[in-house]
């Protein structure tokens, strides 16, 4: 083994007749640890303050589950887009209706799998289960349960060599550790995630753990998506956020080239500080943006509810149907009836009223099996989530 840099070593082996230089990271934390002083300390403080504001507003929202529903779906969509899917928010919501043929299955099922994996992770943490390799494997099994990647050992650490970029390990941009290192490397990462004596905050811990996970690349597929989930779950587990609403996928998507470059600067140059600057700025802007989105959604719902109250006697039933659109902004009459318990004629009249007010619109152009969308709500959720 020839040592290079301070974050890992190279293991050189022969595979398919050519020499493969696989990178094996040292266990965390780095030694010496990253410097969080001066301007970086100020960035760290600003990021923590932004997380505090996000945590506060989610505690004050009248219905935080609505916000969580929307944000989980946007995160799933954007994180999957980074991996090449082309689904839109509308595609996902139509797919979840189970009544909309023609939605691109392979792409949207990947997003749906991501939601299942994230939801499972949150449920397990809230039930007292630790953030652990077992939980990571459980989420990975759900992530690759259907569609593309279902043959890539869902829920299991890889038993063969993988690589990033290029057509084979010999010409790859980056070659993660050989498979016989993966179990030990992931066990060390789990120990790090539960180390209560680290000389830095959970925010720094999440930043370091993300790079380490992506460097180990323990699965044959889905590493990027699980690695991004790991950030939110770490912050939730360590009490930075009561609700796991900080998702950096949009920031990584908007800065993809810099994101990948900085992962490499850690691996090859041990430049944790440059990565931390990028990560902390992402946390600050993402948390601030989430607070702004929450405020905009609350204002939108209040404005539209006030317009419905002006309808007089029909207002109560119309509000019931409107509330169903708030919880899921794409719906059919059958779906509305199932979720509100109102009769078909009542649901139809309420939707007609919402159309008259310009709150919802019909999107199929059909006379039967029509589907309606709460357009302004969907537009807010869709910002930044357009396919690449």
Label the CATH architecture of the largest domain. Orthogonal Bundle
Biggest sheet details = 3 strands, antiparallel
Number of strands: 6
Q: Could you please say which CATH topology of the largest domain applies here? A: Fic-like fold
* Count of discrete structural domains: 2
Tally of helical segments: 15
The CATH superfamily label of the largest domain reads: Fido-like domain
Mean pLDDT: 90
Order of helices and strands: EEEHHHHHHHHHHHHEHHEEH
Helix content: 55-70%
Distance between the termini: 40 Å
- Overall shape: it is globular
CATH class of the largest domain: Mainly Alpha
> Which regions are unreliable across 5 or more consecutive residues at pLDDT < 50?
none
Structural class: mainly alpha
As laid out across the biggest beta sheet, the strand order is 1-2-3
How large is the share of residues in beta strands?
Answer: 5-15%
Over all CA atoms, what is the radius of gyration?
23 Å
Structure write-up:
There is one protein chain. The protein has 388 residues and is mainly alpha-helical. The protein folds into two domains: 2-292, Fic-like fold (Orthogonal Bundle), CATH 1.10.3290; 310-382, Arc Repressor Mutant, subunit A, CATH 1.10.10. It is built from 15 helices and six strands. It has a three-stranded antiparallel sheet. The protein has a three-stranded antiparallel sheet with strand order 4-6-5, sandwiched between helices. Strand 1 and strand 2 (8-15) form a beta hairpin. The protein is globular, with a radius of gyration of 23 Å.
